[in-house]
Amino acid sequence: MRGEVAAADWRRGLLGVVVLSLLVPAPGTAGSPQGFWLSLLVPGLGQKVTGHPRAAAGFLAVEIGLWSGSFGLRYVSDIREDNFRTFAAEHASAHATGKGRVYFDDLGFYDSQLEHNRFARVDDGVDAELYPNTAEFFWEWDSTQSRQRYRELRNSSETADRQALFAFGLVIANHLVAALHAARGAEDAAELSLEPHPRLSGVALVRRF
Q: What is the pLDDT along the chain (209 residues), one digit of tens a residue?
C-alpha cells in the first residue's frame, strides 16, 4: 500500500512539473516573473523566460531525475521494510504491528525477548526497560543465521531510505543553483551546474567560463 501511494505521488509531482513548464510565457512576453524566483520555484522555468532553452531543459531534466530517484528509493525502502517485517514474523514469531524503531533494533541484536530482558537486567538493574511477557512482545529466532539475515534486510531498507533523503536534498540544491543561474541571465557566459565531485562523497557546485 505504501508503495502504491509513493508511486501515485511521484506521478502527480512529475505531471505538475511538466504542465507548469508548458504554461510559462515565451521569452520576452510581458508580465513574465523574474527568472530567479521562477527557477527557485521550478528549476528551468526562469531559464526559459530569459531565453536559455538548453539550460532550461537541463535543469528540468535534473529535477525530474532527482524526484524520480527520491520517490523510487522511497518505494524500494518501503518494499524492503515489508520484507523484513514479514521475515521477522515468519522466523521469530514477532508481532511488528504498532512497534517502534527500538523494538526493531532489539529484534536484530537479541535471539529472543527473554534474552533481551536478561541482558537489560544485568546492564541497567532496577532501571531496566523490559518487554512484558505477552504474546504481543514475544519473539524468538529460529536460528542465529535468521537473525543476521533480518539485520541485513533491515539495513538495506534504511540505506534506501537515507539515499531517498539525500536525493531530496539534491532537489533543494538544484532549485538554488537554477535560481542563481537564472538570476545571472545573459550578462555572464559562466554556467552553474551540479556535478559529481571526484574527491567528495556527493556533488559540487561547478562554475564554468
A: 455 545 555 555 555 544 444 444 444 433 345 778 888 898 998 888 888 889 889 999 999 999 999 999 999 999 999 999 999 999 999 998 989 999 999 999 999 999 999 999 998 888 888 899 999 999 999 999 999 999 999 999 999 999 999 999 999 999 999 888 888 764 443 455 555 545 444 555 454 53
Of residues 17, 11, 15, 19, the one with CA closest to residue 75: 11
Crossing angle between the packed helical segments 53-92 and 101-109, to the nearest 10 degrees: 60
Exposed e or buried b per residue across 99-138, where buried means at least 16 C-beta atoms within 10 angstroms of its C-beta:
beeebbebbbebbbbeebbeebeeeeeeeeeebeeeeebb
Q: Distance between CA 124 and CA 86 in Å, rounded?
A: 31
Enter the DSSP assignment of 26: P
Taking each helix axis from N to C terminus, what angle separates 2-23 and 53-92, rounded to the nearest 10 degrees? 170
Cell readout for 143 is 536460528
How many helices (DSSP H) and strands (DSSP E) are in the chain?
Answer: 7, 2
Single pTM value for the model: 0.67
